[in-house]
Amino acid sequence: MSYIGIxxxxxxxxxxxxxxxxxxxxxxxxxxxxxxxxxCVAPFDEADELVAASGGDEGVLEQLVVRRLGGEPLAWVTxxxxxxxxxxxxxxxxxxxxxxxxxxxxxxxxxxxETGLALDLCTGxxxxxxxxxxxxxxxxxxxxxxxxxxxxCAAANGVEVLAGHLADPLPADLRGHLDLxxxxxxxxxxxxxxxxxxxxxxxEPVLALDGGPRGTLLLEEAVWAAAGSLHGGGWLLLxxxxxxxxxxxxxxxxxxxxxxxxxxxxxxxxxxxxxxLL
Length: 278
Ligand SMILES: C[S@@+](CC[C@H](N)C(=O)[O-])C[C@H]1O[C@@H](n2cnc3c(N)ncnc32)[C@H](O)[C@@H]1O
What we know:
Elements: H1 28-37, H2 43-54, H3 58-69, H4 74-78, E1 80-83, E2 86-89, H5 102-111, E3 117-121, H6 127-135, E4 140-145, H7 148-156, E5 160-163, E6 178-183, H8 198-203, H9 217-227, E7 230-239, H10 244-254, E8 261-264, E9 270-276
Parallel strand pairs: 3-4, 3-6, 4-5, 6-7
Antiparallel strand pairs: 1-2, 7-9, 8-9
Helix pairs in contact: 1-2, 2-3, 5-6
S-adenosylmethionine binds near residues 101, 128, 145, 146 and 208.
C-alpha cells in the first residue's frame, strides 16, 4: 500500500539520529559527498539546487546545507519545487507537492474546458491550481485551504485561494457551476502516519496528512462537497491510496456520481480516482 509519498529524497538516519558531518568546502563534489554521507539519495541534484538557492554566497550556502543535513525538506530550504514543469514556491511549514500528484494535475487539465471553472480542494502551496491555471489561462481556477500559512503560500504562487474547509468558502453563485473539482486532501490513515518517512513525520504538518481512522474522512467529505459544487457532467478527481478507491465507491454513488475510474501507477498501486457527476 502506498499513501502520501516522500517529499524529497529522504535522509537515511541510522539509529534515528541526524548526522552532524564536519563542514566540507571545496566544490560540488565535496558538497554532494556531505549530502550523500547524510543518506541523501540524489546528492548531486540536491547540491546543485542548494547552490542555486544560495545565490553564490558561500555563507548562505552553508546555512542551507546545515538545514538540509538536519532533515528539513529540500523545498523548504530552497524555497521552491518543480511541479508539472512549473516552479512552485513552498514556504516552510507548507506541505511539499509530490511528484506523484503531477499525473492528477495533468488529468485535471484534460478535464477542464478552456474557459471552465475549477476548484482545487486543500490546495496547500497551490501547486495543482497553478498547473491548471497555467495550462488553461482562460479558465477560472479557485482553490481552498484551511491552513493560514498555506493560504499565504498559494497566494504567493498567484493562486486565487479561499480560506476555509473544503468547498465551504465557495461563493454561493458558483455552486452547481463547476466543471472540475480536484484535490489532494489528507488521506493517510491515522494509524499509518508512523510509517511515513521520518523527515515527513518530523517536519510536515499532520493537518496535511491525517485522513482519520480509515484515511477517508476528508475524502468522503470532499465527495459531498464536489457533488454540491459541480454541474451535472462535471468531474471529480481525487488522489487516494491503499484501498480508499474501493471505500469511496459507495459514497460516490450515493452522492450522485457515475462509476469511478481508478488511476494506478506503474507498480499497480492505486493513486487516484475520477468520477463524473450524473
Ligand atoms: C496533502 S496536502 C496537499 C496540498 C496540495 N494539494 C498538494 O498536492 O501539494 C493537504 C492540504 O490540505 C489542507 N487541509 C487540511 N484539512 C483541510 C480542510 N478541512 N479544508 C481545506 N484544506 C485542508 C492542509 O493544510 C494541506 O495543505
